[in-house]
Amino acid sequence: MTKATFGAGCFWGVEHAFQKLEGVDSTQVGYMGGHTENPTYKDVCYTDTGHVEVVEITYDPDKVSYEDLLEVFWANHDPTQVNRQGPDVGEQYRSVVFAHNEEQKELATQSKTELDASGRFSRPIATNIEEAPEFYRAEEYHQQYYDKMGVK
User: Fold this and answer.
1) Catalytic entry in 4, 8, 10, 107
2) DSSP state of 104
């Protein structure tokens, strides 16, 4: 199994987009990229922790490729927006790919470059591609939130 981590707005919807894919073994939501140890949702939303709401995906690369995961990532948010997605505004909603190794970094960079050149968006892609820092699991009530709320 391999890990992939993406920030693309509120982590509830991002997780939901990935968790049903064949080859995805598990998902969990949490926080990455900040400067506070063990942040809580309240910390991330109401103080300057620098964290992003993310989904961490554990997947079988023999069943789903990292490139396939990148396609889902790009398709499920507006990567041209800075520090926001839809009505959600703040640094914690920024678009970011957290690469767990050099191959992921290279594939994400290539994918971003191709998307930017495609003309699909009228503004440049604002997504950052960064080395994956420590992942902090979000509170249990955030995990598989859409499933808990009956969203199909």
Assistant:
1) 10
2) H
Q: Domain count of the chain? A: 1
Sequence-distant (≥ 6) Cβ neighbours of residue 79 within 8 angstroms: 8, 95, 112, 115, 121, 125, 126, 127
Contact in structure between 99 and 131 (CB atoms under 8 Å):
yes
Other residues' Cβ atoms within 10 Å of the Cβ of residue 37: 8
pLDDT of residue 10: 95
Q: How far is CA 87 from CA 43, 81, 90, 140, in A?
A: 20, 11, 10, 24
10 labelled catalytic: yes
pLDDT of res. 135: 98
Q: What is the pLDDT of residues 58-80, one digit of tens each?
A: 999 999 999 999 999 999 999 99
In DSSP terms, 88 is beta-bridged to 85
139: containing domain:
2-148
Residue 142: give its domain's CATH number: 3.30.1060.10
Specify the pLDDT at position 69. 98
Rounded to the nearest integer, the mean pLDDT of the chain is 96
pLDDT of 152 above 90: no
